[in-house]
Design a protein that fits this description.
single chain, Four Helix Bundle (Hemerythrin (Met), subunit A), two-stranded antiparallel sheet, 275 residues, mainly alpha, 2% strand, 8 helices
């Protein structure tokens, strides 16, 4: 009995797209949770974190099994838009923008965040070759991670449910993250730089430590990781404005030192005693 090989060429690759579909389902679950009750923000945030894990593995599995396809890339972007664009926007709107003094601007803030996520994903697909070792604009999962980890801290009682944080700081952060998504600020892409090949044991120990911290105190650890990633990209971008001035000042100081040395040489020759 001959066993026929299944030809995958020209078909939809099942395994990586199953992970993408799970990512999409988790994003929809997060939306339904916050619409059902005001007590489900922590569970919705956990759904977004799980969606990020499946988002990482769908691309990893596609590369390992060599089943990358244009269909998979587009499907992944649509799932990311729901999970990391629409779901966080609805969470912020339901929690902070549907009532209060800022309520009339809530819809606009919600549209800004979700719209910027859509633009970010569309730009990524159109210029995917330009984002090899760094991303242009903060990735949508990282932006959603800041919001999701915030709700995890609120759900654990670590962050107080104050009116200032809910109705002013959180909406401002959502708009800022939206702007960062469509900005040209470069954010690092550690997974694409093969850093673990240089120091495999060191990065393995670091990864194990981070996993343990996530298990012990997930909210704090994830909030530090996502906010730290965001701040790192901003600080690195701001430093580029001061590099030319530093280089100019260094060049000027070097020229001044060389001039002083030249003048000192001339003065030594001028006042050198003669026979």
């Amino acid at each position: 009995m001959k066993i026929k090989k299944i030809k995958l060429k020209g078909t939809v690759y099942i395994l990586p797209n199953l992970f993408t579909a799970t990512n999409l389902a988790l994003g929809i679950k997060a939306i339904t949770l916050v619409l059902e009750s005001d007590q489900h923000y922590k569970q919705a945030a956990e759904c977004l974190i799980l969606a990020m894990i499946f988002d990482v593995f769908d691309g990893l599995i596609a590369r390992v099994t060599k089943t990358t396809s244009r269909f998979g890339i587009e499907f992944d972007s649509l799932a990311d838009l729901v999970s990391f664009g629409v779901a966080p926007a609805i969470m912020v709107y339901r929690y902070a923008l549907s009532s209060g003094n800022i309520g009339k601007f809530g819809f606009l803030i919600c549209v800004v965040y979700a719209g910027c996520a859509a633009l970010r994903l569309a730009r990524f697909n159109s210029r995917i070759e330009d984002e090899t070792k760094s991303f242009s604009g903060i990735p949508t999962p990282a932006a959603a991670g800041v919001i999701a980890s915030y709700f995890m801290l609120v759900g654990n009682g670590i962050f107080p449910q104050s009116v200032l944080a809910a109705q002013w700081i959180l909406p401002f952060v959502a708009v800022a993250l939206g702007v960062l998504m469509v900005s040209t600020i470069r954010f690092p892409a550690p997974a694409k730089q093969n850093l673990w090949r240089k120091h495999p044991f060191g990065y393995l120990a670091l990864a194990a430590g981070i996993i343990v911290l996530i298990i012990v105190c997930p909210g704090i650890t994830l909030f530090v990781i996502f906010t730290g990633y965001t701040i790192y990209g901003l600080v690195k971008y701001i430093r580029t404005f001061f590099k030319p001035e530093i280089e100019i000042s260094n060049t000027t100081s070097q020229n001044n030192e060389s001039d002083e040395l030249y003048e000192s040489d001339e003065s030594d020759e001028q006042y050198e005693p003669t026979e």
